[in-house]
Write the structure tokens for this entry.
Amino acid sequence: MTTASIRPAHHLQGAIAPPGDKSISHRALMLSSLANGSSTISGLSSGLDVLATAEIFRQLGAEITDDGGLVTVVSSGALRAAGGPLDCGNSGTTMRLLAGILAGLPGRHQMIGDASLSKRPMDRVAIPLRLMGARVDGIGERLLPPIEIHGGALNGIVYEVPEPSAQVKSALLLAGLVAEGSTTVVEAVKTRTHTEEMLEVAGIGIESVPEGSGRRITVQPGTPRAMDWVVATDPSQAAFTVVAGLLARTGGVEILDLYPGEERIGFLSVLERMGATLSRALKDGRLTIDVAPSLLHGTTVQSIEIPSVDEVPILAVAALRAEGPTRFVDVGELRFKESDRMEATARLVRSFGGEARIEGDDLLVTPAKRGPIEVEIDPLGDHRLAMAASIAALSSDEGSEVVVRDIECISTSYPAFFEHLRSLGAAVEVEAS
Ligand code: S3P
């Protein structure tokens, strides 16, 4: 096990380019593997989740090489069943999007995952994929992994996704590439649009129109073309260093090259509402943010502002250090992430001396009292919890001693996390035992 001892750091200064966006990275590998030809990807995330996707597409027949930064994918576009289990590791995005691709790939496929992924429901993708004609099996009523898919001919459907989920939307759009006729996905809440955007760039016929507070997206069958993809940096990973910069007392943190899509950066507006001084500059489709130390106050956060609720753990740390309570409304989807993040975030807040209450699908956070604390945090294998705990540690009062256990999980999405914190001036000791 590897632990991190993190001392309070009240002066943070410097510029950070977060890792390549995880969602875009998975999709760049997938679309390049479905294409016929040679594609390149620059800025690909080096997190283990994305490496799991790369390894799976190698098993399915794509040639994927990484020569120190530029990844090349060579594929005939005709993938084939692997003949062995496809290991998605900790990555729900890999498993759910892959399900959509395997549903239309003739043969029998098995997807497996680690202990955390093996507890996450796959019925949300299996139900619509069955409607398209695929055979999808898993364990129990919620279809937990291992998942077996018998891929074959698919028919297009019109499907209203019951939960706000870009993964489900994306699985169906990817399945739609080989279906008979068009496939339409209706989402009640606008979720991240990477799949639609990237399919369009890769030459696929796809149309997205607003409907109510969501969208109706229709994809036509087709083969994505081989492309040179450039991956912007990841807003959800940036959220950790943004909050670190806000909670510092002096200094300033600059975050570079972010993907600017509105479904990904809602957390910035939440923080501004809490009193954050942030300045944003959009240039050549990339967002730079300057973060100044700020005194924050509590707010009410609607889940629709941060549709995948990925930023709740780190926003809860901001709330822990704010003046007055913060309520996260309708964030029940937290229960289906890499851990039960509803419970885990509440526990994190309490460990740092704040109060947390779960009321139905709402999470209420009351700030911590001032004063040094001594605490050891177990993030339960959840990368976002481990990173949120680390930022809570940095923003603790002088004399605090915080240890975050089992920090290996951070490598699933942000291998350079502690290196980046140190470059801002934080004192972090990492120790393997
Ligand atoms: C993702 C979608 C989100 C998010 C995940 C990545 C994606 O999940 O939590 O980290 O790349 O499509 P949901 O589909 O459950 O919202």
